[in-house]
Amino acid sequence: MKDVLDELAAAQRAMGKGSVPAGEAYTIEVRRRYQAQIDDVWDALTNPDRVRRWLRPVSGDLRLGGKFELDGGEHGEILGCEPPRLLKVSWLYGADARPGISEVEVRLVPGSTGDTEFELIHSAFVDEPLFPTYGPGAGGVGWDLALLALARLLADGDSGNDEEPREFIRRSAAAWGEAHLAAGGEPAQVAAAVEATTRFYAPDVT
């Protein structure tokens, strides 16, 4: 459990503002360092055989301008690809998703000791209905879980696909609540969003 929570603490989280084709957007931003060479991190982000081990199985035309689909229903278009430093995609969910409402950009920078600085920015249209209820944790907790699996994959080749403990999810939701407060969120709304996010990702089955 300690190593899992250490991975959670390794990330810096922020909520900000940006834009997508649909209009003004909010952003969730994750920055952290991986103890792996930049080419290895890039391969884990773009090699379908490795993507399925930390995110989901992916199919489609995995080239600039091509379209992809994950087996969980997420899909989009590859908008930018500059190996091994930049990957940008549209990020939609479900067949009825409106184009232009959500984008994910990942930037990599090589470190001085063979490590890699990792930055992920997920921008979503401000009227997206999940935001008022869940806040940045709506997507943030999901990315925390995925990046935990990526860290394990880069460390030892095992993404550890077992169900994550409630404590990790609870702390992840709370961390995104702190980012929401730092961005000016109203405390009562933030507290309600953290609670809703925790229940969504780790429902009480008792």
Q: What features would you highlight for this structure?
A:
single chain, nine-stranded antiparallel beta sheet, 9 strands
Can you put this structure into words, describing what you see?
- By secondary structure, this protein is α+β, with helices and mostly antiparallel strands.
- It is built from seven helices and nine strands, in the order αββααβββββββαααα.
- Strands 1, 2, 3, 4, 5, 6, 7, 8 and 9 form a nine-stranded antiparallel sheet that branches.
- A hairpin with a 2-residue loop joins strand 1 (12-20) and strand 2.
- Helix 2 (38-46) packs across helix 3 (48-54), helix 5 packs across helix 6 (166-182) and helix 6 (166-182) runs antiparallel to helix 7.
- It starts with a helix and ends in a 5-residue tail after the last helix.
What is the topological layout?
Layout: H1 2-9, E1 12-20, E2 23-34, H2 38-46, H3 48-54, E3 58-60, E4 67-70, E5 74-82, E6 86-90, E7 92-93, E8 102-110, E9 116-125, H4 130-134, H5 137-156, H6 166-182, H7 187-201
Antiparallel strand pairs: 1-2, 2-9, 3-4, 4-5, 5-6, 5-7, 6-8, 8-9
